[in-house]
């Protein structure tokens, strides 16, 4: 149990941020109104996705050096978990956009580039399915994963800054911290981010252990 | 130690030179890639000219880059996908992987630059599409062909190792090339409108950074890919 403290912490933080996110007072703003509470769900999804993709790149580099199949499985399972979070980030964002910007898909730069970043990881998963031989698959997909990572960083962090976006903090829009005068939202937002990142790591951990068990069963 | 290192460097430069010479010679003998892709571009431009009855300049600019995107996928994917297994093994025994990837990228960049400039001239001729700042547009075309060749060379190496070529090549390279394409279209739109060049410095810098990034990552990764 003492090794699993971070899972308990993640669960507690997510429960806290969900309850507090719906019940605590938020700044009253026109247009966005109560949908501001989506901040506690939409943004942590992206943070978790980026953490999971970073874990995946780390294990891809490791698997290139060690040729250990376990590292390869870790890399692919963290991409699987990260893609789930990315899709959830897009869905929560689309719902939010429907209420505040008027259209679920508003052709905002961040929306488009986030969708392309997820396509990049779908391409990684398709590439894996295209190769039958196990060692070759581990090597080639690790190389593509490392090759794609800097491009994802450019897509998510560099390109949106070059053009105007409807997102807060871009294109002359004030960021949320401009409204969060008494740090009330931060008390929920930071725990929510940490909680969802931990839950993401937990999901990845479960996926990996499941695959590992299947692999051991097959090899016996 | 240092002497050894220097010797290695010399060797690398020598190998790159020979490999580029080999590519150029092969191309000169068959003239397949250049003529084939040129014909591809010319016929696509005609198809577009006949299909689009009237268009504004923004659409024409985007169209040019889409045509170049497909032309360069066809031109560059040839570099690894169409090498026979036997020739790959032969090159593997005589040259270092670094020399191979660098020489292929340089050769593809040269090929793409020639193609893009010819295609641009033809495009301007057919569509009467005169960018106000032709110098900047040419610079963008050269940067674009450089980025296409760095990215597609590495992706075609990955796709050829994975076994089934064309389809995988498109799936793997489109998400990677989109950021480059977006920046290129923005840069060339600035050139078409004849905006002051200082406005476009951001985009030029970003393209150079993406190229440096992609090139260094592929130089680091290619030796792992090449070793079978």
Number of helices of chain A: 6
Which stretches of chain B are poorly predicted, pLDDT < 50 over at least 5 residues? Answer: none
What is the count of distinct domains of chain A?
1
Number of helices of chain B: 8
Structural class of chain B: mainly alpha
Q: Could you explain how this protein is built, in words?
A:
The complex is a heterodimer of chains A (220) and B (228). Chain A is mainly α and 220 residues long. Chain A has one domain (37-182, 204-212). Chain A is 75% helix and 0% strand. The longest helix of chain A is centred in the C-terminal third of the chain and has 36 residues, at 184-219. In chain B, helix 3 (57-81) runs parallel beside helix 6 (134-162), helix 5 crosses helix 6 (134-162) and helix 6 (134-162) packs parallel to helix 8 (201-226). Chain B has one domain (2-226). Chain B is mainly alpha-helical. The model of chain B has no long low-confidence stretch (mean pLDDT 87). Chain B is built from eight helices and no strands. Helices cover 87% and strands 0% of the residues of chain B.
């Amino acid at each position: 149990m003492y090794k699993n403290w971070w899972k308990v912490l993640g669960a507690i933080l997510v429960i806290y941020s969900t309850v507090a996110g719906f019940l605590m007072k938020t700044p009253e703003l026109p247009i966005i109104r109560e949908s501001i509470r989506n901040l506690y769900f939409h943004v942590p999804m992206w943070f978790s996705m980026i953490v999971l993709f970073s874990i995946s790149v780390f294990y891809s580099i490791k698997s290139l050096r060690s040729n250990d199949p376990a590292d390869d499985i870790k890399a692919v399972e963290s991409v699987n978990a990260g893609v789930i979070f990315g899709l959830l980030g897009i869905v929560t964002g689309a719902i939010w956009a429907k209420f505040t910007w008027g259209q679920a898909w508003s052709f905002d730069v961040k929306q488009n580039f986030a969708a392309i970043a997820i396509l990049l990881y779908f391409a990684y998963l398709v590439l894996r399915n295209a190769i039958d031989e196990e060692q070759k698959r581990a090597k080639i997909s690790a190389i593509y994963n490392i090759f794609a990572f800097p491009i994802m960083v450019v897509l998510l962090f560099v390109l949106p800054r070059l053009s105007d976006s409807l997102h807060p903090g871009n294109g002359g829009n004030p960021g949320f911290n401009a409204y969060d005068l008494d740090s009330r939202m931060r008390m929920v937002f930071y725990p929510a981010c940490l909680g969802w990142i931990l839950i993401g790591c937990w999901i990845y951990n479960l996926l990996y252990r499941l695959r590992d068990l299947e692999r051991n069963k097959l090899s016996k | 130690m240092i002497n050894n290192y220097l010797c290695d460097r010399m060797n690398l430069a020598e190998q790159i030179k020979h490999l580029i010479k080999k590519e150029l010679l092969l191309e000169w003998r068959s003239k397949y890639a250049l003529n084939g892709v040129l014909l591809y571009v010319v016929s696509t431009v005609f198809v577009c000219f006949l299909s689009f009855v009237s268009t504004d300049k923004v659409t024409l600019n985007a169209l040019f880059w889409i045509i170049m995107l497909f032309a360069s996928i066809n031109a560059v994917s040839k570099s690894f996908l169409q090498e026979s297994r036997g020739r790959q093994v032969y090159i593997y025994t005589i040259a270092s992987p670094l020399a191979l990837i660098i020489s292929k990228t340089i050769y593809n960049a040269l090929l793409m630059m020639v193609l893009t400039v010819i295609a641009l001239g033809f495009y301007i001729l057919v569509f009467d599409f005169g960018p106000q700042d032709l110098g900047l547009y040419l610079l963008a075309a050269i940067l674009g062909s450089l980025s296409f060749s760095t990215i597609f060379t590495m992706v075609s190496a990955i796709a050829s190792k994975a076994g089934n070529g064309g389809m995988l090549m498109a799936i793997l390279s489109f998400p990677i090339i989109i950021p480059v394409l977006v920046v290129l279209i923005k840069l060339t739109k600035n050139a078409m409108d004849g905006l002051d060049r200082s406005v476009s410095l951001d985009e030029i810098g970003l393209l150079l950074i993406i190229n440096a990034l992609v090139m260094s990552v592929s130089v680091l990764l290619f030796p792992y890919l090449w070793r079978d």
